Amino acid sequence: MAEEPFKGYLSNKSYGESLVLAIKDNVSFFKNTGLDKKLSKSNGPFVDLGCSIGNELSAFQKGYPHLKTMGIDINKGYLKEAKKNSPKSKFIYASLRNIPLPNNSIPILFSSRIFQWCNKNKAIDEILHETYRILKPENKGIYIMLLEDFIKKEENKYFIQQVKDKGFKILKNDLENYGMILQKPNNKKYFYS
Ligand SMILES: C[S@@+](CC[C@H](N)C(=O)[O-])C[C@H]1O[C@@H](n2cnc3c(N)ncnc32)[C@H](O)[C@@H]1O
Q1: Does residue 24 line the site of ligand 1, with CB under 6 A?
Q2: Of 71, 29, 48, 49, which Cα lies nearest the Cα of 118?
Q3: φ and ψ at 8, to 5 degrees?
């Protein structure tokens, strides 16, 4: 598992709770990202890609009660649990390779530790393509991506090249330890209606 950007931060809390508190306190990886302000001001939806059993969604929901939250996962059993863990969130049963959401529609995307499943470059390619497509452009949208060892060690170069090729603007790059914070520039490169 990757080192979390909030490693050691309030370690008595769960992963999701520590993450939300680290964002609120503007620590470490989240410094100068304006993320807390964005999450406080936005109605969302905040979409967790590969939400599993909904623990992180639940933490964000509690931390930012006004925020509409949504989770996507390909595992029906996980989604059933997620509905119990985060009852206010909406859920979509779908693959991240083909996300049933419109272009330029989502202001806040979040994913944590989803890419270790992508042991083929094609999957990395397709997921980055889809996340770029649905993210709102410029400072209306932000993608918080937390990664894991797989990306750090083996697929690092390919991954970062794909992020750039898709057209993402990299706001924070701490791929060695944590992850990336990305935006989509308003350059009409992809999927403009
Ligand atoms: C290691 S878990 C990470 C869960 C959570 N985000 C976390 O950080 O603890 C990976 C999740 O991605 C989901 N997943 C894997 N491939 C997927 C795909 N193609 N589409 C949607 N979800 C996928 C799995 O079902 C699982 O819930």
Answers
A1: no
A2: 49
A3: 80, -5
* Residue 114, ligand 1, Cβ within 6 A: yes
Residue tagged 């995307």 (tokens): 109
90 CB near ligand 1 (under 6 Å): no
Does 14 fall in a domain? no
Residue 163 is part of a domain; what is its CATH number?
Answer: 3.40.50.150
Specify the pTM: 0.92
Q: Which residue's alpha carbon is nearest to atom 27 within ligand 1? A: 52
Compare 13 and 98 and report the one with higher pLDDT.
Answer: 98
Among protein residues, the one with the nearest Cα to ligand 1's atom 3 is 113
User: Has residue 125 got a pLDDT over 50?
Assistant: yes
Total number of domains in the chain: 1
Q: How far is the CA of 187 from the centre of ligand 1 (A)?
A: 30
Identify which of 114, 50, 57, 115 has the alpha carbon closest to the alpha carbon of residue 78. Answer: 50
Confidence (pLDDT) at 2: 43
Measured in Å, residue 74 CA sits from the centre of ligand 1 at 7
pLDDT average, residue stretch 53-68: 96
Boundaries of domain holding 154:
45-183
Distance in Å, CA 178 to ligand 1 centroid: 17
